[in-house]
Write a structure and sequence with these properties.
By secondary structure, the chain is mainly alpha-helical. It is about 55% helix and about 5% strand. Strand 4, helix 9 and strand 5 form a beta-alpha-beta unit.
Length: about 375
């Protein structure tokens, strides 16, 4: 029988989830869930990791636990088929992180491009990130973020991790840790494979302002749960082509956020529904590049497509918001189930490292023999 996959992925609860999360991972998670071609699927709320750079604002993390859970349920994740859990309620993950720290050098952590970019974005230090100054204002917990992520993945023996492209260096470092552990202690851990969205545009959706990444901290997001009115305002103010001043001016597609979003969301049937004068997206792009097509018309088209996708999600969320005890129960039961799995892996890790002293009958027998001969 062909071995089925174990899937693991998650999000930091630093705010409500946005459409960058949706096209980058959430939509793919639901497709994986519905495929049923897996043994287990774990989706977690990474509150412990969120505290690494929000340690002085725990209420921010606390208040967003249910926001993220509601987003999970509203996009279509089904607790009957997916285990949804809270990271900090599984202490086994912390213990695994501690053991893995011995397998990673400080120099290797410094080279992780995701860590470096996140440090720069969050402004932990105003000093140069040259060797002498790197990390002067960084909490140690944030610096070791890749090790914590390796613990999350390996605790559940995940074989597939659906993430955005920015997380690729994290998966590479996880596999380095797995290989080091298995070489030193024995073949206990499993190397995961990264699963990126098939549509390359979805791997890193830019912000509405044209910035390289949609980010809550930059305020350039369209949230899954916001109102249609707010979505309208954000779409109509989106960054397009600064040189496309008049309708008749030739327009540029590259770097034009509206067209990037159309690449991520638009389907062939949208044209017959909302813009029948064009056969497809390529025809729309060609007209824009030649000139004679205004930005407002394209934005209105995009808005209709986004609302078609987001309205069912928003309606489901409103229903789940009426039954918060149910949402809490989903998290509680999922966390209990996930902890049992993580505990089993930790037991195997401790045994391989020969630190399960009083569970190892051979060790106890050896000690009895040793001291009886003295």
């Amino acid at each position: 029988m062909e071995k089925k996959e174990v899937i693991l992925t998650g999000d930091r609860p630093t705010g409500k989830l946005h459409i960058g999360h949706y096209v980058g991972s959430l939509r793919g998670r639901v497709e994986l869930q519905n495929s049923m071609d897996y043994e287990n699927m774990f989706v977690f709320i990474a509150d412990a990791q969120a505290l690494t750079d929000n340690f002085n604002n725990p209420d921010k993390v606390r208040q967003n636990i249910l926001e993220v859970a509601l987003d999970y349920l509203s996009v279509g994740l089904d607790p009957k088929r997916v285990t949804i859990f809270i990271q900090s309620l599984i202490p086994e993950l912390t213990e695994l992180t501690f053991y893995y720290m011995n397998l990673v050098s400080v120099a290797r952590l410094k080279r992780n491009p995701t860590v470096k970019s996140e440090i720069e974005m969050r402004g932990f230090s105003d000093e140069s990130q040259e060797e002498a100054n790197f990390g002067t204002g960084i909490p140690a917990g944030f610096f070791t973020y890749p090790i914590s992520q390796a613990a999350d993945i390996t605790a559940f023996k995940a074989t597939i991790v659906p993430v955005g492209e920015d997380q690729k260096p994290m998966l590479e470092q996880t596999n380095e840790i797995v290989r080091s552990f298995n070489r030193i202690y024995g073949p206990v851990l499993i190397e995961p494979n990264i699963l990126l969205p098939k549509n390359s545009v979805c791997r890193r959706l830019p912000g509405t302002d044209g910035k390289a990444k949609m980010s809550k901290s930059l305020g350039n997001c369209i949230y899954l749960s916001e109102s249609n009115e707010d979505t309208h305002k954000k779409v109509m103010s989106m960054y397009t082509d600064p040189l496309h001043i008049n309708i008749n001016d030739p327009g540029h597609i590259e770097g034009n956020t509206v067209f990037t979003y159309l690449d991520a969301f638009c389907k062939q049937e949208h044209f017959s529904l909302y813009l029948p004068e064009y056969e497809n997206l390529e025809a729309l792009k060609e007209h824009y590049k030649k000139g004679g097509l205004g930005d407002v018309k394209i934005k209105k088209f995009l808005e209709k497509i986004l609302l078609e996708e987001l309205e069912p999600i928003r309606n489901r969320r409103k229903e789940f918001e009426k039954d918060i005890p149910y949402v809490c129960q989903v998290l509680k039961e999922g966390t209990e189930k996930a902890r049992a799995v993580a505990a089993q892996t930790l037991s195997e890790v401790r045994h391989a490292m020969k630190i399960d002293y009083f569970e190892d009958e051979d060790f106890i027998a050896e000690q009895i023999k040793k001291f009886s001969q003295q």
